[in-house]
Each structure stands twice: as C-alpha cells, then as structure tokens.
Write a structure and sequence with these properties.
Elements (H helix, E strand, L loop, with lengths): L50 H20 L3 E4 L5 H11 L4 E5 L5 E5 L5 E6 L2 E6 L4 H5 L22 H14 L7 E4 L7 H11 L4 E7 L1 E7 L5 E7 L5 E8 L10 H18 L1
C-alpha cells in the first residue's frame, strides 16, 4: 500500500550542501514582499455637521459614473468646505498610486485618490477635485518647454553613437502625430547606447512641464519632453532598479490613465463609503 506521506528529498535546503572553501555563504536577493491593493477605509463618523462634504462626495461619485460612460472631465471646488468637511474629504480620498508635478503658473501638485480617476489638485488659489481619465492640466501643460529641444542637429560629443538616428525617428513621429495615432515606442533597454547617447537625447528632446510618478509593483516615472507627444517612460522594480527605459509617442502614457471601468468602480466605491459614514 502506498502511503500519502512522503519524506522530503535528501540534498535540498539549508545545510544540505558543503560550505564553500572560503567560508562564504550564498546570499539570495531579497524578493518583493508587498503590493498595493485597495481596501475600503471608512472615516470615523464626525461629531460636526459634514452634510456638505457628503453631498459633494455624492456629486463626485455621480461624475465618475458619467465620465466612465461619456468621457470628459468634471471639477469640484473644495475651498468652500468648512474644516470638518475638508478633513472628512481628505481622509476619504486618501492617496492612490499616481502623483504629478505640473510646472507653470500656477505650479500644481496632483495626487490621485484611492479612487482611480479622482484627482486632488492643489496650487496657488487652487484646491479642488477633478474627475477624469487624467487631469486636463497634465496634458495641456505637458510640452510647454522648461528646457527647449535642440533637435537632431545638436552638436555631437565624444561617445555619442546611436542617439542621432533615434532623435530623427522621434522628431518624425512627433511631427506626424494626430489624435488617434497608435502608440509608438522606442525601447532604449533593447537598443545599444552609451551614457553619452542618453545625455545627447536629453538635450535634443528638451524637457516639458509634466512629471508623473505611478506607484504599484515598483515605480513608473514619466517625464514629458520638450517635443510634442514624446514622453520618457521608465519602469523600476520594487528595489528601485531600472528595468525598462523607453520613449513613448502618444498623448498620454497609458500607465497614468484611469480606464473607464476604473472610473465606474470608483463611483460605486465612493457611494459605498458615503453609505457607511451615514
């Protein structure tokens, strides 16, 4: 009769192998442990009257549902809420995966809430929530140059090898881009290049006004160049090691965009929180 109990195999596991002659032990790279996921947080029911904040949350939920179906954007001013309502709003929205720094006048900090597609915008004279796939200002300001692109004729420095033809390709794709044009990616990770190539491309493409960080299983850092529709998109693993380095020619990299199904889910979850508070 065959027993269901099996002895562990011999010759495996810690201590099963002879030590190295130099006394060193094999050290394994630590594996990632955590990944961000949503769990509903219900703020404590405040003693103060927060009916105005709850009414505004309801309007935000309605807007998320409509934007999920029809697209577009909706903006809600938070500056008129009293301190209790403002605290409830901040605790309910929390911090999601995507943060943005938008340069210009006024400079703007953008933080996605825990509800995808619901964004908190702050700046001089600005305190609001915007509902949409991505904040309008992130696209409108993106390619306003903080450092102008010098173009494919940027003077060559020693060590620049493969960058000039890449710049020609990106400038051509930028010039030909129209709404509805498919995504075009230049994958630097798969192409031979030098540090001097990267520095030359940085000068040739310039620097735009939108910087985006998407946190998840690792980080994705997105930077607008000074060339319309061209973004630098860099993926890092959970130990902050660069694993994928690309240029994307598109209106907005998909990593920073809330999908319609995300917005519909956000509408439902906001309503759940409102009911729980009440």
């Amino acid at each position: 009769m065959v027993s269901n109990f099996h002895m562990p195999p011999i010759g495996f596991g810690p201590g099963s192998q002879p030590a190295a002659e130099d006394g060193q032990e094999l050290a394994y790279m630590e594996l990632p442990q955590n990944m961000r996921s949503y769990s509903m947080h219900v703020p404590d029911a405040p003693e103060e009257d927060v009916s105005a904040a709850l009414e505004l949350l309801g309007r935000i939920a309605d807007a998320a549902g409509l934007v999920a179906i029809d697209g577009g954007k909706a903006r809600f001013d938070l500056s008129r809420l009293d301190p209790a309502g403002r605290r409830l709003m901040a605790e309910t929205l929390g911090h999601g995966e995507v943060a943005m720094r938008l340069h210009g006048v006024p400079a703007m900090a953008v933080q996605e809430s825990v509800f995808a597609g619901v964004w908190a915008l702050k700046g001089e004279g600005l305190d609001c929530v915007e509902v949409g796939a991505v904040p309008a200002a992130a696209q409108d300001r993106a390619f306003a140059p903080r450092r102008a692109a010098t173009g494919p004729k940027t003077p060559l420095a020693p060590g620049v090898v493969n960058a000039p033809p890449l710049a020609v390709e990106l400038f051509d794709r930028s010039a030909c881009w129209t709404p509805g044009t498919g995504l075009h990616v230049v994958n630097l990770t798969l192409l031979p290049h030098t540090e001097e190539d990267l520095a030359w491309l940085d000068a040739a493409l310039g620097l735009g006004s939108s910087e985006i960080l998407s946190r998840g299983y690792g980080n994705c850092r997105i930077t607008a160049t000074g060339l319309p529709q061209v973004w630098r998109v860099q993926f890092y693993n959970s130990m902050d090691t660069l694993i994928l380095d690309t240029f994307e020619v598109t209106a907005m990299p998909e990593t920073a965009i809330a999908a319609p199904e995300d917005l519909a889910d956000s509408a439902r979850r906001i309503r759940d929180v409102i009911e729980a508070i009440r």
